[in-house]
Amino acid sequence: MSTADQSVESASGYKKSPFASFLLELVQTLVLAVVLYVLIDTVIARVRVENISMRPTLEPGEFLLVNKMAYKLNAMSRGDIIVFHYSPTEDYIKRLIGLPGDVVKVTNGKVSVNDFMLDEPYIAAPPAYNGVWEVPEGAVFVLGDNRNQSSDSHAWGFVTMDKIVGKALAIYWPLKNAHVLSHPNIVKAAVNEGP
């Protein structure tokens, strides 16, 4: 068999060797992989849960997918689980409780926002602290679901909007814990109980 018989004819009519075709395909595949990675990384972050502050919702060692575009396209909602930059080297995961302008109160183990009691079936235990916080413009108030074992807004203040990475979407690892995270409507309208 001659060399001409072993070559591959290209679309332009000239013949390429099988090795040259392989290299071209390899380069195209690598370029496509890099482009897809950059596109996905622009929209989705992967975050590991490091501590117990969000128990029982999240456990240490779980990996989350975070939608980095969520708040560029949609409004924030109370009850969302968000990831934010706590410091230049550390990200935190907490539940969004108060939006700009809200008044958050914690009294006798109950959390209220703008005088509406929150419905929080996801917390580990009622908070053992009291306080009132008025959320400033350009910031949010966050709490861990493990209220008494969480470093959060009740201890150090508010999270500014520019620090927010995105909204947690799902646990993807370990596989036995994999599921989509719920973001309940935690503020219930006041009930008129009447006389």
Automatic annotation (TrEMBL):
Coiled coil regions, renumbered to chain: none
InterPro entries: LexA/Signal_pep-like_sf (IPR036286), Pept_S26A_signal_pept_1 (IPR000223), Pept_S26A_signal_pept_1_CS (IPR019758), Pept_S26A_signal_pept_1_Lys-AS (IPR019757), Peptidase_S26 (IPR019533)
Enzyme class, UniProt record, top EC level: hydrolase
Residues annotated as catalytic: 53, 94
Gene Ontology CC annotations of this record: plasma membrane
GO biological process: signal peptide processing
Descriptive protein name: Signal peptidase I
Lineage, broadest ranks: Bacteria, Bacillati, Chloroflexota, Anaerolineae, Anaerolineales
